[in-house]
Design brief:
This protein has five helices and five strands. By secondary structure, it is an alpha/beta fold. The longest helix is centred in the C-terminal third of the chain and has 12 residues.
Length: 114
């Protein structure tokens, strides 16, 4: 099993001053359709992680000092990335259940749908 939060919980965290990284693993072209706007957002496409491995992540994401919430479109790529990171020894990686699609439906429709 892997750690996970709901989109509602993520919405609360985005309203807070809490330190975390929201890691979007969707492809860059997908950001045109739906995107969370927040200074804590980092975009590292799953394809880049597949080709470059852990070094594709920012230094702050690799440091494991703050939680990293992993998000994609519907939640399946983010589960794969969260599980892969756990296999690499990372402890502070948390999947966002339902992805940005669920976030747009339940929390903030202004992020967009596709």
């Amino acid at each position: 099993m892997y750690p996970e939060i709901t989109v509602t919980e993520l919405g609360e965290k985005l309203k807070s001053e809490e330190k975390f990284i929201l890691l979007d693993v969707r492809e860059l072209s997908e950001l045109e359709y739906a995107k969370v706007t927040d200074s804590r957002l980092e975009v590292t496409p799953m394809s880049r992680l597949a080709s470059e491995g852990i070094k594709a992540l920012s230094e702050s994401a690799r440091s494991q000092e703050i939680p990293v919430y992993v998000m994609c479109h519907h939640g399946s790529r983010s589960v794969q990335v969260t599980m892969w990171l756990a296999q690499q020894g990372y402890k502070n990686m948390i999947n966002v259940s339902g992805g940005i699609n669920e976030y747009a439906r339940k929390v903030d429709s202004s992020v967009g749908f596709y």
